[in-house]
Design goal:
Length: about 475
């Protein structure tokens, strides 16, 4: 994904003779190349170190002399001096800051394909208590008492014959009962839109950026744009349907076909983000990364992964579940805390594949979460099983999002993408240090400000051999 600098060139640029070559390949020896605009910063760090005044003065004077001799008159002692100063700087940084260790990658979840999709399965397999709830729904329908009784008698008959003797005529009956009960249930529920709470998109995006050391300004920018796609289709004819299709993916739709374009949308915006990143266009990078994250995060919501017939008939289930998550985001079950405590990630193979895998893993629990809400409309929000499932959905979604951020921008300082920052990566960083005018690479630009300077050296040193 990124162009690599030639090892020979980067080594030659640092070392000016055979006598200095060994020390030139130490990370701290890069300080010999410090540009004029950053020399004062290096000297200020020396003043901050716990050294005697005499020692500080001596180090600064010797370092200024070394800079004056570089490159043609640099000596081995100059590189050793830079090694000493660099070590002091990193020790100081590590002492005053809590070093954010990179998260460890986890294996992707094992996904078991669910049984073939069966419309109205949630009605056919209702237990005794759930059957009573359904009858209560029927009693509230806007039909005559005679029709209510006929519906209940039909359901009793169907339950007696399920699963071996179900006919196509039974599905017509189930469709009619679902239509009549859903009219009442949908009217009894408020519509808050088919989407996660906006805070979920932003907070998951923020956490994923923080784990990879994205600057605070770019992290905030990505967080602010994470919920934008929910407003894109408001003025489109049949907007609800179009919106749902774009933010949805059922990996096991009828006939073995998939349904929904969320994975494709995730891939498209991730591609755009990567193009912008390689060109050093960081605001555009994080805007498109936020959009890609949005479509991925949508698939962490089980209601975005299947049960089309049920959800069309009973929209209130979708709405009530999302309202439940929203109302418990920063209070109650505090689902935001679950996102904030997730410090691992999935090493994804690509954005579209990640979206599809997330949808598959979440879809496996769709039936369970749907039935908790459907059969317990007034009490599901107090059920620990619902909270436990929701926490798992959010943890998994955050891990996939963190993998997405790494997939788009890489891990700073890790050119060979082997999840450590070692000597091979040091050689690469050395080639870009003080760039421009040297060739520029965003992997070396920790602060993403268009150059690779002393501030980036401090960050690189902090993760070197980590």
């Amino acid at each position: 994904m990124y162009a690599s600098a030639a090892t020979a060139n980067s080594t030659k640029e640092i070392a000016t003779s055979d006598t200095t070559e060994n020390t030139a390949l130490s990370i701290h020896s890069l300080l010999i190349k410090t540009t004029d605009k950053d020399k004062d910063k290096v000297l200020e760090y020396i003043d901050k170190c716990e050294l005697s005044t005499e020692k500080k003065t001596q180090l600064k004077d010797d370092l200024i002399d070394a800079w004056d001799r570089y490159p043609d008159g640099a000596t081995k002692d100059d590189y050793l001096l830079c090694e000493e100063v660099g070590t002091l700087i990193i020790e100081y940084e590590q002492k005053i800051n809590t070093v954010q260790k990179e998260p460890l990658a986890e294996a992707l979840p094992t996904i078991e394909k669910p049984s073939p999709y069966v419309p109205y399965k949630y009605l056919l397999e209702a237990d005794y208590r759930e059957q009573k709830v359904l009858f209560e729904y029927i009693d509230s329908c806007y039909v005559s008492e005679k029709e209510k009784q006929e519906m209940k008698d039909s359901m009793k008959d169907i339950w007696d014959r399920y699963p071996d003797e179900i006919t196509e005529e039974d599905y017509d009956t189930l469709s009619y009962i679902t239509k009549e009960t859903s009219e009442y249930l949908n009217n009894a529920s408020s519509n808050n839109g088919v989407k996660w709470n906006a805070d979920a998109y932003g907070d998951i995006m923020e956490k994923s950026c923080i784990l990879w050391g994205v600057s605070s300004s770019h992290t905030q920018y990505a967080k602010d744009h994470a919920d934008d796609p929910d407003g894109w289709y408001d003025n489109v004819t049949a907007g609800d349907l179009w919106h749902s299709f774009n933010h949805y993916y059922n990996p096991y739709a009828i006939g073995g076909l998939t349904l929904g374009s969320a994975p494709i949308n995730c891939q498209m915006h991730a591609n755009l983000a990567e193009y912008h990143y390689e060109d050093g266009e960081f605001p555009d990078t994080y805007e498109d990364l936020a959009y890609a994250s949005h479509f991925l995060t949508d698939l962490g919501n089980p209601m975005h992964t299947g049960y089309e017939f049920e959800q069309i008939a009973n929209r209130w289930v979708h709405w009530d579940y999302e309202n439940y998550v929203s109302s418990n985001w920063d209070s109650g079950y505090n689902f935001h805390d679950t996102v904030d405590a997730t410090n691992t990630y999935y090493a994804i193979s690509g954005p579209m594949e990640a979206a599809e895998e997330l949808a598959e893993s979440i879809h496996a629990d769709l039936e369970e979460i749907y039935e908790y809400v459907y059969y317990n409309p007034d009490t599901f929000d107090n059920m620990p099983q619902v909270a436990s499932l929701t926490n798992e959905f959010l943890r998994r979604t955050t891990k996939y999002n963190t993998g997405l951020v790494k997939d788009v921008r890489g891990r700073k300082g890790d050119w060979d993408d082997d999840d450590d920052v070692d000597f091979d990566d040091f050689v690469e960083f050395a080639a870009y240090y003080t760039s421009p005018p040297n060739p520029y690479d965003p992997l070396a630009d920790f602060h993403e400000d268009g150059d690779v300077d002393f501030d980036d050296f401090v960050e690189f040193a902090g993760v070197y051999q980590n």
